[in-house]
Amino acid sequence: MTDIIHLLPDAVANQIAAGEVVQRPASAVKELLENSIDAGADKIQLVVKDAGKALIQIIDNGCGMSVTDARMCFERHATSKVKKAEDLFAIRTMGFRGEAMASIAAIAQVEMKTRRHEDEIGTCISIEGAQVINQEPVATAAGTQISIKNLFFNTPARRNFLKSNPVEMRHILDEFQRVALAHPGVFFSLHHDGVEIFNLPKGNLKQRIVHLFGNNYNERLVPVEEETTIINLKGYIGKPAFAKKTRGEQFFFVNNRFIKDPYLNHAVSSAFEELLPDDSYPLYVLFIEIDPSKIDVNVHPTKTEIKYLDEKSIYAILKSAVKRSIGRYNIAPSLDFDQETGFSNMITQKAVEDIVPPSINFNPDFNPFASDKSVANSYASSPRNYEAKPSTKNWGSLYEITEQPVVEQTSIYADETVLETKQKQYMQLHNRYIVSQIKSGLMVIDQQMAHERILYERFLVHLEDRKGASQQSLFPQTITLNANDFELAKSLLDDIKSLGFDVREFGKNTLVVEGVPVDLGSSNINETQLFEQLIEGFKNSQQELKLSKRDSLARSLAKNSAIKAGTSLGQEEMNTLIDELFACKTPNFSVSGKPIIQTITLAELDKKFEKS
């Protein structure tokens, strides 16, 4: 029997390795951006076409490479950052394994132009499927320019598993934002299909956050800074009032490397305890500076997980620092024991001698049963002057109410047959529940969940037939979103219009809302807030429940536009709400699967009153 174990060809081994390193276009963007940072570039341009499937191009002004280095960088395990095993515990660079360029070259058509600052001529190398097609001298700017075309061209199965362009573009934006946040002193730009998405000048961290997420973030940020012998911590947290229902604006960086760490995330969440609801997530951009010998970054292929030597101490420092910042900038309620201001407005500024005590005047001769004339005489004979003269005229009208016919009211204990012949009467309980008598006892309906169910099913119909009616706004509202949410909104625009929104693009990351769905009624509607809640709710449904796009949209809009607990309803409004609820396909359960209707039988009531 012949031997069956053999070495894989380099091309096949590189393709296998590429599956771990390059999972989608965003993975290639991350690796190339980090290489540019390691090269010392202070100006990095990213150009993307077809969400990275057709082209990913990185242009930087870093140190560049020699002819030998340019050829060597495409070999597996070729790196300039690690020379011996001990170097793994002193890593300050983003990359160190030497796998990214070889993996990218194995599954794409790559062209690289590079030149060192001290050289007069550069090098151009073309590689396709790990095979070098061409290498020649070229005149190019100092630094490196890499173009990746037709990603996964030789692995069609992997290419078929890529998501739609909007989804892949959002992943690219995520990676771009993480690298840009970690290096505010570097100029970044991003173009997608010829449109400029970002142009980020050099600046400090706060300026970078505002440029990435929008000018309205300027007032939301609270600085955090702490220096200890274990770690140095700096960055910003968001004010609790601006917390969102979805994750996505939580960033941890360890030695400028973006990481995902649920343990440290819990430390920040604990600091916000009792300031936020359970389903809200605050913004934070926090940087931890730590001795590289006390961490291990060589844990995961994406290098987003880190092992710490003393993670409990880091947890405690992080929690206390965030909590102190919350208190220091008066986000959390606090008491001032030096001055109690509760009665400060009641203290008069007059001198004591100017204060006149109040006096009480009365007429001891006043007779309420005397005639008008005798009353007038008593006033005249009184030594005091009275400004008001009480009148006893028409006092008998006080008793006329007893002669009015009594309006017959339907008792909740009336016979069911009587209720069937008349219009049912509903009662609102604490402006939260609607109570009605039924033959077997009482029926209690949650008004908010009932309205959510009605709107949800109505919006689903609109999304199917594309006939949602719109109510034009008197004054159109412009909405500026961050780049990620704007890309998401663009991908949902057709479905959003089907719901009844009249909305269109209006420049960079901006939309104009000119109308809202008629189903939302004529109440005062904040179009900006409603639209932002729609996008936020959609993301939450996608993350938590993995629902379809249309179902997530209908669910989000129904939850955000339904009447809330505490809303007072008239009898006609309650009648309409109940009629529409029982016309739904699933009237008994809310959008989130909770019961809308509860019944209390007479037997249960008798048991409460301990009746046999």
From TrEMBL:
Keywords per UniProt: DNA damage, DNA repair, Endonuclease, Hydrolase, Nuclease
Residues in DNA mismatch repair protein S5 domain copies: 209-327
Domain MutL C-terminal dimerisation: 426-569
Keyword set includes Acetylation: no
Cited Gene3D superfamilies: 3.30.230.10, Histidine kinase-like ATPase, C-terminal domain, MutL, C-terminal domain, dimerisation subdomain, MutL, C-terminal domain, regulatory subdomain
GO molecular function, one term: endonuclease activity
Residues spanning the signal sequence: none
Record's keyword annotation contains DNA damage: yes
Superkingdom of source: Bacteria
Coiled coil regions, renumbered to chain: none
CDD domains hit by this protein: HATPase_MutL-MLH-PMS-like (cd16926), MutL_Trans (cd00782)
SMART domains in alphabetical order: DNA_mis_repair, MutL_C
Family: Belongs to the DNA mismatch repair MutL/HexB family.
HAMAP family linked: DNA_mis_repair
Entry function: This protein is involved in the repair of mismatches in DNA. It is required for dam-dependent methyl-directed DNA mismatch repair. May act as a 'molecular matchmaker', a protein that promotes the formation of a stable complex between two or more DNA-binding proteins in an ATP-dependent manner without itself being part of a final effector complex.
PANTHER family in alphabetical order: DNA MISMATCH REPAIR PROTEIN MLH, PMS, MUTL, DNA MISMATCH REPAIR PROTEIN MLH1
Protein name (Swiss-Prot/TrEMBL): DNA mismatch repair protein MutL
